[in-house]
Amino acid sequence: MKSFSLMMIALLAMSRVWAQEDTTRAKELAQIVVTGQYKPQSVKNSVYQVRVITRESIQKRGASTLQDVLNSELNIRFSQDLSTGGSNLSLLGLPGQNVKVLIDGLPMIGRQGTNNEININQVDINSIERIEIIEGPMSVVYGADALAGVINIITKKSTSAKISVTARLNEETVGKEYGVKGGIHNQYVGLNWRYKNWEIGGGFGYNYFGGWKDTAIDRELVWHWKDQIVGNGYIGYTAGKFSIRYRFDGLDEIITNPGNFLERQDDADDTLASDQEYLSRRLMQQLQASYFVNAGLSFNVQSSYTDYRRQVFSTNVSKKTGAVTEDLSPGAQSVVEFHGFTVRGTAQYKLSSLIALQPGVDINLESGKGERLKDGNNTVNDYAFFVSSEITPNSKINIRPGLRFIKNSVYDAPPVIPSINTKFALSDNLDLRLAYARGFRSPSLRELYFDFFDANHQIIGNPDLKAETSNSFTGSLMMKLTNKPGVLATATLTGFYNDVKNQIDFGLSPNDPNIYEYINIEKFKTRGVTLAFNANVKQWTLAAGLGYTGRYNQYKADDKSLPAFKWSAEANANIGYNFSKIGLDVNLFYKLTGKLPFYQLVTVGGQDVIQSAHTEGYNWADLTFNKKLCHWFTINAGVKNIFDVTLVNSSTTGSVHSSASGTSPIAYGRSYFAGLTFNWNKK
Question: Could you give the CA distance from residue 6 to residue 329 in angstroms, rounded to a whole number?
């Protein structure tokens, strides 16, 4: 805590210097946010503590995936499952299955992998306008999976221009590897057209990742080869008080995992390699409409239908003849399909200048079929009614209580979920936000019914799972450090506490000690504090933060001498400078991910022993350059993963995987990229 105090003193001292600067480049806290709001409003006026990543910031990073964008954010950590090609995240110390991922306010369907998470790298990076992140439970508004928070991906809309064309070409090495079949190759083109009350647009992209071989022997790749085709389109109509919009987002992805040649027992003269392909297809369709009756009443309806299909296709390759045959061993082939339908309807009714109401309905229907589901075809339906009110006795106080009433088709959901969010303007430069929420996450179809067996995983679903619930408290104090017009400098101190009951995790099956199944853990807790600082001073953009998060030690109940929490630190710093005369931006993005300690149960001499373990911390940094070539073109280049991180040591003895390597994969080493972006608009 001493470091936090020293940093706050330093920020206050620095603010006195910045207050003397004269610049018009900095923007006030007027970014418009929509996540969880009654109507679009500024970050400063929102009752939630919202973190916004703008399109400009995404472009500066030279990002090829969404993980590239979120890598340097506090309270967000990533882990990789190299066996399935997935990328998993955690937020506030809670795993990714507790994070609701939305596209324009509607949930993504198609959680996958052992951790039951949305693979965020299946999101088209080129279609993103901005990202809004709210930390802490949003279960009243967004229902299940929003226990840790919400990541809302806001897609690009047509601009005021009559016609606009966007194109992007991005080339990147994968470590030291690059070539026609190696490295990263991204291409994208988009078109938007506006005519009177109509807007039409869309885009198409191809993303290629050649995998990473490093020192792997024979044919094997450490990181799998990936082919990804993405596409989107929309049409919208606005007339007076009414607007309606349809959008689709499509994904076709193939992840290829070539195996090494192994001896065949039935033919010593030949060897076989086992190859696997993971084929994913997602089509998400949205329809959104709103009607503005008057200043006191409006309606909004959102609906989406998602068709998600994932196939595992395994083959054997003969080294002697090159012949490819289908692998007929158990678990080598599988197809699973998930279909999700969501409809949300809300009304915003202003009773008076003091009170506004937002009642709404939220229906989520999800079904799945495939040979790995227990009955071959399973369904989970969730029906909810929610209501919240916004009480503003004066311009300095905003109180928003809410309730959600739930009915689920397959398990006993909590009948009522409450929350209350408050915002107090203590002064023109100081805002206090305090919140309590009853978090809620339902077991997913995968956790209830899906059996996952391959060379690295042996996991079965559990139809007797209970819903996760939590009591969560968050608070933040935001200080504006200067009143100088055109200069922005803020510091935000945030604290959180999550007490989770019935958290869903892995455990050994009571029927077979060689198999894992999903189980409910009695309790899990996280707590933490962060201090973040942001400033825009003349040509400088500065951001820095510290975070300290504690994760509950579940073995405390068995050994009272053990600490209740295991703590891990984080720090980040983003520094940018704009050479306005030559149109050049230089940016450095840095994050320290601290050592993550934990306890594990191991067997020593036939006895179960609780043993301390940890995953080592690491430093990550990206350096990027963005240069305007002319009115239409921008070139960007740089180096990612400057510290050349690949693996970090981990003293784990293994979990749901068949074995543990003693290391955790982080990245494929230092890489270099260059890209060209084209933007053309006709008014």
Answer: 61
pLDDT-based confidence at residue 569 (cuts at 50, 70, 90):
very high
CB-hemisphere CA count at 13 Å for 521? 17
Nearest Cα to Cα of residue 496 among 531, 523, 528: 528
Residue 662, classed as helix, strand or coil, is: coil
Single out the residue of 585, 579, 587, 589 nearest to residue 544, CA to CA.
589
DSSP-assigned states of every residue in 313-334: EEEEEETTT--EEE--STTS-E
Q: For the range 43-49, what are the long-range contacts, defined as Cβ-Cβ under 8 Å and sequence gap of 24 or more?
A: 44/431, 45/398, 46/423, 47/390, 47/398, 47/400, 47/421, 47/422, 47/423, 47/433, 48/134, 48/421, 48/433, 48/435, 49/134, 49/135, 49/136, 49/433, 49/474, 49/476, 49/478, 49/492, 49/494
Cβ proximity of 358 and 346 under 8 Å:
yes
Q: How many Cβ atoms from other residues are within 10 Å of residue 487's Cβ?
A: 23
**Nearest alpha-carbon partner for 82 in 279, 334, 278:** 278
**Residues in the chain, overall count:** 683
Q: Are strands 334-350 and 106-107 parallel, antiparallel or unpaired?
A: unpaired
Beta strands 32-33 and 41-42 are: antiparallel
- Tokens found for residue 342: 């969501």
In whole angstroms, give the CA distance from residue 543 to residue 535.
6
651/642 Cα distance (integer angstroms): 25
Report in angstroms the alpha-carbon separations of 322 from 136, 273, 312, 455.
Answer: 54, 10, 21, 23
Q: Which amino acid is at 169?
A: L
HSE at residue 204, side-chain half, CA atoms within 13 A, is 0
- Given its phi and psi angles, is residue 662 left (phi above 0), alpha (psi -120 to 50 degrees) or beta? left
What confidence score (pLDDT) does residue 653 get? Answer: 54
282 beta partners: 251, 308
Q: Report the sign of the C-alpha dihedral through residues 18, 24, 28, 33, in that order.
A: negative
CA distance 286 to 561: 53
Give the torsion sign (CA, 651, 656, 659, 665): negative
Give me the sheet containing 99-103, strands edge to edge.
Answer: 50-54, 128-135, 149-155, 99-103, 106-107
What is d(CA 169, CA 439) in angstroms, rounded to the nearest whole number?
42
Q: Which long-range contacts (CB under 8 A, 24 or more apart) does 35-44 make?
A: 35/102, 35/105, 35/132, 35/134, 35/150, 35/152, 36/134, 36/138, 36/141, 36/142, 36/150, 38/348, 38/356, 38/358, 38/390, 39/298, 39/348, 44/431
pLDDT tens for each residue of 211-235: 998 776 678 888 999 999 999 999 9
pLDDT digit string, tens, across residues 46-84: 999 899 999 999 999 999 999 999 999 999 998 887 777
Report yes or no: 49 and 75 within 8 Å, Cβ to Cβ. no
* Closest among 244, 260, 356 to 302, alpha carbons compared: 244
Structure token pair of residue 155: 């897609």
99 and 120 in contact (C-beta within 8 Å)?
no
Query: Cβ contacts of residue 200 below 8 Å, gap of 6+?
Result: 158, 192, 193, 194, 234, 235, 236
Quote the pLDDT of residue 282: 95
Among 624, 565, 619, 626, residue whose Cα is nearest residue 597: 565
Q: Which two tokens stand for residue 89?
A: 């995240």
DSSP state of 481: -
Give the CA distances from residue 602 to residues 503, 558, 606, 653, in Å, rounded to whole numbers and listed in that order.
22, 14, 10, 8
Whether 649 contacts 662, CB under 8 Å: yes
For residue 661, name the pLDDT band (cuts at 50, 70, 90). low
Does residue 18 register a pLDDT over 70?
no
The pLDDT mean for the chain works out to 86
